[in-house]
Design brief:
Blueprint lengths: L19 H17 L4 H32 L1 E2 L2 E2 L12
Antiparallel strand pairs: 1-2
Length: 91
């Protein structure tokens, strides 16, 4: 397999300590590569595995961010967990 060809294996990216935005950008690139259909089977499987790992990493980071937002919402003497209302939810 030629390393410069479109079917070249996508190098694995460790997800530990990877910023959310970087992980999401890499995941989007993997999705685009898989959608093109130019990868050989083994490369496609490796890319899919990496995509799953990145997806789980992003989901975990979003969960942590959601918990941090919940902790910051105070009512009275204690904390009350409420869903985050973004700018589009303020109607």
């Amino acid at each position: 397999m030629d390393e410069g060809s479109p079917s070249a294996k996508i190098p694995p990216a460790p997800t530990d300590e990877l910023p959310f935005e970087t992980a999401l950008t890499r995941l989007e690139g993997i999705v685009q590569a898989l959608e093109k259909g130019d990868l050989e089977l083994e490369a496609a499987l490796a890319a899919f595995e990496q995509g799953v790992a990145l997806s789980r990493h992003c989901a975990a980071q979003l969960e942590v961010a959601e918990r941090r937002i919940e902790v910051l919402v105070r009512e009275g003497a204690g904390f009350v967990a409420r869903p985050f209302a973004g700018p589009e939810d303020t109607d």
